[in-house]
Amino acid sequence: MRVVLPVFESGAGVEPVVGLALPSRALGAGVRVCAPWEFADAASDRS
Is 6 helix (H, G, I), strand (E, B) or coil? Predict the structure, then answer.
């Protein structure tokens, strides 16, 4: 399964999406978080 998780909010909106993406990826899903580029570090630090 492949999943796209879009984020349209501030940095506080990225954290819950990353929290959903990590367990989904651990279960075998291909996950992409689509967020503004300035929040790339928030997602990559937790992967």
Answer: strand
**Cα separation, 26 vs 18, whole angstroms:** 12
Tokens of 38: 């300035």
The pair of structure tokens assigned to 5 is 């998780």
Cα gap 41→29, rounded to integer Å? 21
Return the beta strands (E) in the chain as ranges: 2-6, 30-34
Whole-model pTM: value is 0.71
Q: How many CA atoms lie within 13 A of 25 on its CB side?
A: 14
pLDDT digits (tens, 9 = 90+) for 19-47: 999 999 999 999 998 888 887 776 665 65
